[in-house]
Write a structure and sequence with these properties.
InterPro entries: DHFR-like_dom_sf, RibDG_C. The chain has a single domain, classed as Dihydrofolate Reductase, subunit A. The protein has 207 residues and is of the alpha/beta class. The chain contains 5 helices and 9 strands, in the order βαβααββαβαββββ.
Length: 207
């Protein structure tokens, strides 16, 4: 079995992926727009997100996102979000951290320092490994092309500040569109890309 690494990110039109879920999710650097995703309860996009959650059999998270998830999802295994909570609670959770965090959520373990080797090992153990949020960690995976599918849910809002999926200084890289873009009635667009080899090419249009 060779599993696949999925990076799932909610982003604004200007590429901001910080704190889509709520005001307290990540207020670092004085970010004032936490919860910007909430005004767009798009059922069609929600179904696509839910399908990915149903299929995942492991979570791969950065330290900050892990702490947010560990503080929330184990306590939300009933009610409207119960299916997500039970799924996240049940699957193995792998955490990338330079420190030595206390990983008390059941099924949690810390990745070793050799990221490429750790990702290869996860692919041998799991079929569908999802990175959700975890912007800084996701940028490392993107830079090293240690992913198979990058899913961006792009929301029709511009914030002008916040942590971006591709900040200034991001490594140049090619990607390939894996399937046609889809959109919901509220203007949220789903884009799925895979890594593409080779250096970024340039040229002159029309030549």
């Amino acid at each position: 079995m060779t599993g696949r690494i999925y990076i799932d990110l909610f982003t604004t039109l200007d590429g901001v992926a910080q704190a889509p879920g709520g005001p307290e999710e990540d207020p670092s650097d004085g970010f004032p727009f936490g919860g910007w995703q909430a005004p767009f309860p798009d059922e069609e996009i929600g179904e696509a997100i839910g399908q990915g959650i149903d299929e995942l059999d492991a979570l791969l998270l950065g330290r900050r996102t892990y702490d947010i998830f560990a503080g929330y999802w184990p306590h939300h295994t009933d009610g409207p979000e119960g299916g997500i909570g039970r799924k996240f609670d049940a699957v193995p959770k792998y955490v990338a951290s330079r420190g030595t965090p206390a990983l008390e959520w059941q099924g949690s373990s810390q990745l070793g320092p050799d990221l490429a080797a750790e990702v290869r090992a996860l692919r041998e153990r799991h079929a569908s490994i999802h990175v959700i949020g975890s912007i800084d960690f996701a940028q490392t995976l993107l830079r090293e092309q240690l992913f198979d599918v990058l899913t961006l849910w792009v929301y029709p809002v511009v914030l002008g500040q916040g942590k971006k999926v591709f900040p200034d200084g991001a490594a140049p890289a090619n990607v390939t569109l894996l399937e046609p873009a889809t959109s919901g009635p509220l203007g949220v667009v789903q884009l799925r890309y895979g890594p593409a080899a080779g250096p970024v090419q340039t040229g002159t249009m029309g030549s």
